[in-house]
## 1
Amino acid sequence: GLSGALANDTKTGNVYNGVTLKFSEPAEARIPNTRWRLYVFRKKAPQNAPSSSDPNKKDDGLIDTYHISRQSAYLFGRERKVADIPVDHPSLSKQHAVLQYRALPSKQQQIGAAIKLQCKPYLMDLESTNGTFINGARLDPARYYELRKGDVITLGASS
């Protein structure tokens, strides 16, 4: 079967709504037991930027909340036909990044005990032009990065 590597052709059967997806779910893909949420915030303005006189314009406020534990993967991008979380920022690719839940063996296994799987969220950049970032560090494309509670995800040059 296919791995988590990027799928590049229609022969893989990785087509959704007539669009070839840039990724395939790995064999260890699972719907999580834990209820995860993704909070979308507006990025803080630089310290030296002039403050807005509009009292209705909030800086660094919560924009949206997504409940992201109902399926095993969530695609971020501008292509509304396939994106689970559509993002309209012009710096984003049509299929920008994917959040994938993976059930992998726990690293805290006891010798002789049954293998215990832990389902955790991972983020993969789908070879986007302007990149995907976790806590300010740019991700290498086509590679899974484990997400932890409190991580800040930035897509492209979005704010």
## 2
Amino acid sequence: FWLKPQIDGSGVADASVLFGLMAAILRYEGHGTPPELVMIELQSIIVMDDGSKLGGQHLGVLQIQSGGDVTLSNGPRTLYGKMQNLKKPLVAARKTGQSDPVDGDESRTRSLLAVEGIVRRKAVFSARPQLSIEREGGA
């Protein structure tokens, strides 16, 4: 594939990407650089208590501590893991449903994708969650 970045006068950065016969434009329209996101890798299965789908749900509170340790807490359950750098950064993008012609040719189009952020690190959790039980009165 090839990546061709362009910055127009408005400060909007575009990058055209071609994968075989499919073409797409990655566009970030925010201020400054895209936010850094953290990928979460779990070695288990997540099931919501009420049986609802996982998408859009609050997964828990992610805390990154010194030394690369990381925790993911949800209620009385806590996962312990480690932060790892990715060998190559990833771009998190979403479909916009829009397209642009390729080099002005209306018969060839490329999809417009909105850049949500850049992923450079991942939090890896390989153990089962630990359960913490508080005593009455918060002690």
## 3
Amino acid sequence: PPPPPRRGGGGEPQPEQEPDEQVVMQRSRVEVTQALQAAASHGDEGRFSEAQEVLSAQEQRLRRRKTMSSLGEGLIAELEDARNRMSSRSSWEGGGSAQLRDTMQMHRTQRATNSSVSSLNFRRLSSKSEYLTTSQSSMVSRSMRAMSTR
């Protein structure tokens, strides 16, 4: 059997150490997905200020992390982007809803649902690149180079 947990000063069991960075980022991914889902529900009901509050609160939780990986930075950028898409009914109905649901699905399945380089925010939304396969990543890199030489 594993050794019993160490006891702190208050008699409470203490973990051996902080969670692994990958565990922390997976937890963050799940929390962001849940926040996006809650925000989408608010958006569908026309409660855009409540949706923005949910997204802002999750963004602040991520910003308080001790360390920040590229996935964490991408998650923050996606929360900011989602918040902007919740600014009005016209923004929400003009593609914001679809984009938010696409992002939710991407994080839920840990698969990029598209690798479009036409988006102005592709570089900033780096969490998308975390889910690309090697061949998809190579194609995106080639497309980005081709676009920058135009």
